[in-house]
């Protein structure tokens, strides 16, 4: 198995010391580590690529500015989502819900769905 192979519940990248938890029942589900949030987008690499035929320099510049704006918005949305997921995790902890409870509920629902399906 290569060192880049996917594992069932976690993804780890050799260049980061942290691990991103993607467990469906985890309060940290889908959160990017701080190290991953701080990885800059290489806009210089985008600038090195040749512009498609038919685009003027002004159009190309406008598109690059829009890309930068959208990438900034994506970063903001990731931060908002991470804060909401943390809040959700806190609420679940206050209610005494654990990831194991969520897993049990998901398995029960899946088993019920299998039993009532016509397949």
From TrEMBL:
Family: Belongs to the TPD52 family.
Domain of life: Eukaryota
Organism, as annotated: Bambusicola thoracicus (Chinese bamboo-partridge)
Coiled-coil annotated residue ranges, if any: 60-87
A Pfam short name: TPD52
Keyword flag Ligase: no
Keywords: Coiled coil
Protein name as it appears in the record: Tumor protein D54
InterPro entries (UniProt xref): TPD52 (IPR007327)
Signal peptide boundaries: none
GO cellular component: cytoplasm
